[in-house]
Amino acid sequence: MKKVIFTEKAQKPEGMPYSQAIKVGNTVYVAGQGPFDPATGSLVGNTLEDQARRTLDNVKAILEEAGATLKEVVKVTVLLGDGQDLMSLIGFIKIISLNRIQLEL
């Protein structure tokens, strides 16, 4: 059975016809997220690390609403505007212990 997941604690899909996530059985499919403050909708952070942290907070909130955690994530796709940021992103991923998942860049 398919269930739409929504939380006020993450970026809202305002003006867009999509859900934050869909849960089918025990699998949660989280829609693309960005570094947006859920309260204001404003872009957050001046650095890659700040923006990655805000995006991750949004994903965590959605997963929690679905009854899941980051420890259960098996795949993450990251879109970078500048390839020069790749090493910074990899360093951040290691710090937050997501280096065990499949990362698609």
Put the structure in a nutshell.
It contains two helices and five strands. It has about 100 residues and is of the alpha+beta class. The model has no long low-confidence stretch (mean pLDDT about 85).
Features:
2 helices; two-stranded parallel sheet; 60s Ribosomal Protein L30, Chain: A; three-stranded antiparallel sheet; 17% strand; alpha+beta; 5 strands; 27% helix; 105 residues
Apparent shape:
globular
Alpha carbon gyration radius = 14 Å
Individual helix count = 2
Stated plainly, the CATH topology is called 60s Ribosomal Protein L30, Chain: A
Strand order in the largest sheet: 1-2-3
CATH superfamily: RutC-like
Mean pLDDT: 86
The parts where pLDDT drops under 50 for at least 5 residues are none
Q: How would you explain this protein's 3D organization?
A:
The chain has helices at 48-65, 86-95; strands spanning 2-5, 21-24, 27-30, 75-77, 102-104. The chain is globular. The mean pLDDT is 86. With 105 residues, the chain is an alpha+beta fold. The chain has a 3-stranded antiparallel beta sheet with strand order 1-2-3, with helices on one face. The chain has one domain: RutC-like (60s Ribosomal Protein L30, Chain: A, 2-Layer Sandwich), CATH 3.30.1330.40.
Secondary structure topology:
Layout: E1 2-5, E2 21-24, E3 27-30, H1 48-65, E4 75-77, H2 86-95, E5 102-104
Parallel strand pairs: 4-5
Antiparallel strand pairs: 1-2, 2-3
